[in-house]
Amino acid sequence: MRIAELSRRSGVPIPTIKYYMREGLLPPGERTSPNQAQYEETHLRRLKLARALVEVGGLSIAAARDVLTLMDSQMNSLSALGKAQYALTTRREHVEDEAWAEASRQVDELIAKREWRVGPRNPARLSLTEALATMHRLRQDDYFALLGEYAETVGHLAELEITAIMGRPDLDSMAEAVVIWTAIGDAVVSSLRRIAQEAETARRFGGYVDD
Questions:
Q1: Would 26 disulfide with which of 20, 68, 70, 175, CB 3.0-4.6 Å?
Q2: What backbone torsions phi and psi does residue 184 show, to the nearest 5 degrees?
Q3: Stated pTM of the model
Q4: Which residue, among 156, 152, 159, 109, has the nearest Cα to 129 in the 3D structure?
Q5: How far is residue 165's CA from residue 144's CA, in Å, rounded to a whole number?
Q6: Taking the CB of residue 174, how many other CB atoms lie within 10 A of it?
Q7: Contact at 8 Å (CB) between 47 and 10?
Q8: What is the pLDDT of residues 17-33, one digit of tens each?
């Protein structure tokens, strides 16, 4: 297919397709002339995945490229799956103040209490610490009473997801599921949480938020 058809079938504008190719998210097509290239179904699938990671999953171009590069590599070990999952977490700078120290202690304690085997360099561990440190700085102290319940809930969710992913026939399809379910699943969980919050508020007080 030509780039116009690739754009039509994917819903991605041609300038965005070219941008993704320049940034390494999408491989170039096969040149048929100096100004034209041919694209395959694999390009269409890759383009849809790249767009989903960036526009729905909220990944930066650089993070999406790292994830897609890992998916292209020979995913022949569970550690490779872990690397793909790690690449999905945005790494941010943080301030190591009193709030950070207290949050770090709480994260370590929570992980130990749950008996979770989590690497010390897991970027999600650091992002959780920064989130809790921010709660401390904003004096949202009653929030921390909910951490145990949060951990229980997401632990059950993780068990369901990993069981389903491990049922796939090979590591390549497992890696794809890890990437898609983590990136897009974050948006699903966040949206469901907001829907449930409105539903619970309506149950307690009646009416709807937009009434």
A1: 20
A2: -80, -35
A3: 0.78
A4: 109
A5: 31
A6: 20
A7: yes
A8: 999 999 999 999 998 88
